[in-house]
């Protein structure tokens, strides 16, 4: 056989291969593959690995270039259009009405999240520690920002008991404390730009403090936050209090605000990357292979916490979290009762807190399944990208978008007339319990099954905020009375339509099942009644059509003359 390096030899080799059977064809193929340089195989392997990593880590750089021209995606705001919080505060926030573009070389939710914790290069800060003793004997470390260095040095003045400088209370996430990178970014930005006092309320057992009682913190434990906030309001009565909660800290914050309603000495709050529904989050965290790394990382952190603080005889008797406990600890059940101006920030590609748990409707209505009233206290801001508590921006990735957005919101809230003022005395009594039923989003249908056994709410993310109606009350954020008599301002007379709606809700708890189901469907879908009629027609058409065809066939047989008989 001639050499395959020449065209003539190649042609003869193929001819001979065809004549000698399949074995000759394979040998020719292997011979041809051996002629390809090894470097080309290396290039092909690199391309395959790059495509796999790009898809596995959910990069979106190509999408950012082709579809947005590196301008980023718009921030989506969910709110009721009659909300005074939006009209007078959020409407002045340029970041919430702009676009967010992730740092190009960090255009992956997983890379952003990992980079934040390991290579984020946070500013250098120093704290002054205060040990707060809870009523049950537990100790909580309150770390007050003393100074910060990086992009401009900041040294805070000693806090005066009679000072009116706002105080920002930061609630870290699970297994996080004041030394976390994202916490340092937040406290540095708040102190540098606004010169506000910032204190990080570490969880029990965090910040180098030992657990002195048999009580440990969890995603639904609000007693420590309540005690710390009441302590600060007593010590600094003239200073407005703001709270920023992150991750599990955001879940604790929203649950606390919903439990106590009007009875909180908090002027405003921000919840960032809250898990919202812990039952949905528990199913989500182990769904994909890449998310199991987060599951293992969280489990490893909790194991270290348990071995450090929990006695062995108690540790071996601890049981896994029950579904009912997850439902009770989920903040989505309490957001409808929040009476404090609240901004919620979430990323749709958050690898830890699923987008399926975001309470879209609860951020518009106080109670979406019964008497609909305007939730004028909550604005939900969602971005398409951002990861978990990352939101890196700029070519250098030196700043976090959610930190700047939170700072801008609180600054506009501080200069507005709609700061929340506690209606009762500062000495807050313990709330007798939540004002809403312990119901998970899973119990509030209609719902569909998702892959891997996941059960999630059937809520369309493209639903736009619905229009207001005559029965919507907008009194919850009205400015307080300026009479100066130290008492609450008299409530304004409500329109007759609102009074009839409230009287009907008090006296009409017994509603027919059909009406309740109809209100539920209309409240979820936001579609007119003719769409329901169209769906009903499509569902019943096979039976109705068959019956009509039988009736028409019988009628035609009666009307038509009988055919002639052939002889």
Automatic annotation (TrEMBL):
- Residues that span the membrane, as ranges: 41-62, 529-552
Locate the AB hydrolase-1 domain: which residues? 166-303
Entry-linked Pfam families: Abhydrolase_1
Coiled-coil features, chain-numbered ranges: none
MF term (GO), any: short-chain carboxylesterase activity
Membrane as a keyword?
yes
Q: Where is the composition biased (Polar residues)?
A: 471-486
Q: Where is this region: Disordered?
A: 459-494
Q: Which Gene3D superfamilies match?
A: alpha/beta hydrolase
Which SUPFAM superfamilies does the UniProt entry name for this protein?
alpha/beta-Hydrolases
Keywords, comma-separated and alphabetical: Membrane, Transmembrane, Transmembrane helix
> What PANTHER family does its record include?
ABHYDROLASE DOMAIN-CONTAINING PROTEIN, ALPHA_BETA HYDROLASE 1, ISOFORM A
Similarity comment: Belongs to the AB hydrolase superfamily. AB hydrolase 4 family.
Name by which UniProt lists this protein: Embryogenesis-associated protein EMB8-like isoform X3
State the organism named in the record: Punica granatum (Pomegranate)
